[in-house]
Structure prediction request, 487 residues.
Amino acid sequence: MNNLMTKVKDQLDQAGIKYEFTKLPDDISMDVDVHMKFHGKDMSHAMTNMVFKTEKGFIVAQRRGDTQIDSKELKKLLAVQRLSLATKEELEQFGLEPGIVPPLGYEIPIYMDNKVLEKDVIYTGTGDRLFTVKLNPNDLIKVNQATLGDFTNLEDVQSGGRVLSGIRATGRLHLGNYLGAVKGFLQLQENPNYQNFYMVVDLHTLTTPYDKDTLRESVRNIIIDYLACGLDPTKSTIFIQSMIPEHIELAYLFSTVMFVARMQHLPTFKEKVKQHPENVTMALLNYPVLMAADILIYKASLVPVGIDQEPHLEVAREIARKMNDQYGLNLPHPQRFATRGEYVPSLLGEGKMSKSIEGSYINLTDDLETIKEKLAKAPTDAGKGAKAPTEGGVASLLEFVELFQGLEKRKDYEKQYTTDGLRYKELKEELAQAIFNELKPIQEKRRKLEQDLQYVDQVIEEGALQARKVASETLNEIKKAMGINYD
Ligand code: ATP
Ligand code: MG
Prediction:
């Protein structure tokens, strides 16, 4: 236990109030979202302690995890003109560290937002990175003598906001991309509360070996796939990442708050290193930082992507938190929007379906014969046993059955496996047909779009104009906050 945490504990004990310390896992990130998931509580039960500097001295503002500071209101309450977040060095004077400020135990006046008191229990820092404390905020104010006030606004995640997602131009779209990502795009596009941004991430494509002569064609093909699946440029902004150079500028600024070791330990990075050991570039390491810029430049709070992208979203939230803490910004903490097909397995029976893994995928453009041929190659077994396999080729096939023919059908097959035996030839025939039935209307629409490339190019051009307007506004705001401002 460090000194500060001992002090916190002593003060709570002396006051005789109830509290509970919880040890977090050693390798947990600093992200409050992640801590709250660990506790099994939502963000409204988190309390953040933020140290600010004013012309009258330092103060601590305590806000609920699902709220943002309204600096106008806080200035009014404090009767000050200037308000900025304390720097790391300034925090050190009080024996504090950014991100792990406890709710008491140091000599700075404390202000608590009234919304915190709406909860009977809250989780907050202890001054030790690996511990949180759970207590009743009504008890806490008796000890830390916090002054109450109204100086936050609720984060507006539920009632709307912006949505962003993207797909690499590393090949044609497959069932995994469709079920894990595009189906989510389509659902959110129809919700009038959300403003949707969907792009082709050509810059992320450069992080693994690619062909410069066909890149343009591949990018346009994905835009056509988007439109064929039902993305509608009158409802969503559809664009190409590199046409908005602001993403790259913001990624550079974000890279100043992320540590190299954190990026090297990401599972997605390690996987790509295994896949392309000869191509471990700076761009590959920086991928999640650019992705954070892609999301936060639109202040998107919701990101429809497959489960493989969760570690990248954690990085995006960490960056948002650091930027907000260090520069007084108000960036959202983006959450993943999950679909039923958030993890579509590879046809090969190992890992996920991926554009860049030959033999792993069924493309949205595959005809019935091709689908049959691909399924025929999927590895199977004798079709009989005590229990249907939960991994490998057969498990993948059963997962496809569930996704395209429903849970009942899957259960039927599982029963056959443990009784008369499962005939894969028939299973594969029926499954191929079910998959093709879902893809047929997409393919028909695609053929029409291929005849009207002028329209496709117009969508790309207009999308870039709309996206750039939003992106350049956010970039300017962030540059100003970081002191890069020469107007
Ligand atoms: P690559 O192999 O080049 O990385 P990919 O198939 O993984 O290609 P991405 O462009 O990296 O595709 O990802 C696009 C979107 O599709 C992301 O939201 C990702 O989470 C989702 N996605 C990719 N593969 C799957 C899968 N097998 N199941 C569910 N979602 C997936
Ligand atoms: Mg991928």
The chain has a mean pLDDT of 94. The chain has three domains: 3-154, 157-342, 368-450.
